[in-house]
Amino acid sequence: MDTRIFYSVLIATTAFFFSSTTLHATAIDQSGATEQSIFDFLQTNAIGEAQLELNLDSLLANKNSEASFPATFRFKHGKKQTVEIDTKVNVRGRYRRRLCELPPLKLRFDKSDLKTMGLSNHAGYKLVTHCTDDLASAEYLLREYVAYELYQALSPISLRAHLIKLSYINSATDKKTTSYAIIVEDTDEMAERLNGEICDNCYGLPTESFDGNNLHLHALFQYMIGNTDWSLEMNKNVKLLRMNENGLHVVVPYDFDFSGFVNAPYAVPDSKYSVKSVRERVWLGSNPDAEKWEAAKVVFQSKKKELMQKIFRCKGISTEAKLEMSNYIDSFYADLSSFFPGSVTVTAP
């Protein structure tokens, strides 16, 4: 199917979807639930489609700046009601900011709107976009979504991710573009949920300041998906939390597009490692503690079936791609029982 025809079908569907009564930031029925965030609400109500209306021309003309632009986020709630929320949008990221037709974005919802809706004041959410307007790019986004799902299956100390079909409406031209997008949980919301505190400037922390089980499991996950685009020392693509319960730090990863598991066409291996492809795995964790290493491996072995199910149940990914993704994970499991890394270990799938 021609890509443009595909998107036209999606757009027509979305137009019908939003043809109901629209209310701006109205109070919403949470069915007796305790105070939720907008993220909780989207997840628990299985909101699968939304619109984001803004001046895309202005946003993209200023994508190398930190300027923010007013926008409206809307979604259907119930049979005939569409809810609108004011938000500010800015471009984020480094590599994808330069490369993508539509780079990753940050949404900052209006807190007064959230309050009116009876929601908590967690307002800042990363939006992972489809990068380029074609089916292949949408599939790479879905692969990254699955990576988030895999880590959630392995550890509760993780960022939640919500997949939606999002229509971007350019108010400058009235043009609509529809594709998949990932909304990533607000980091303060995540810290509150896990009873910890974000440590934004915790560079070069000693190993003993971390929860050892979390440290081993996180590094093994990054190795499994073939991701070298992270660093504890520099806080690159990880959030560090100091847990209130014991004062130890834990690692929460995000941004997996440079991993071998996603295998995005623009992903290139880090030049400081002797690898020719992002598909080759590099161990970047510390020298493992034998007991905690074995405990981490037990978790991975017990979760293998669930991880494979996450891959094959994701709609929108071709059967061929799902087989390639599962084979890549299988290649990790094939060596797991005997694998014990050194300071830097490189293996090919």
Helix content: 25-40%
Radius of gyration in whole Å, from Cα? Answer: 21 Å
What is the helix/strand order?
Answer: HEHEHEEHEHEHEEHEHEEEHHE
Question: What general form does the structure show?
Answer: globular
- Got a strand count? 13
Q: How many domains comprise the coordinates?
A: 2
The residue ranges in which pLDDT falls below 50 over 5 or more consecutive positions are 1-19
Spatial arrangement of strands, main beta sheet: 2-3-4-5-6-8-7
Sketch the major β-sheet: 7 strands, mixed, barrel
Tell me what you see in this structure.
Helices cover 35% and strands 23% of the residues. The protein has 349 residues and is of the alpha+beta class. The protein folds into two domains: 3-188, no CATH class; 195-347, no CATH class. It has a seven-stranded mixed β-barrel with strand order 2-3-4-5-6-8-7. The protein has a three-stranded antiparallel β-sheet with strand order 9-10-11. The protein has a two-stranded antiparallel sheet with strand order 12-13. A hairpin with a 4-residue loop joins strand 7 and strand 8 (175-184). Helix 6 crosses helix 9, helix 8 (212-224) packs across helix 9 and helix 9 (290-312) packs antiparallel against helix 10.
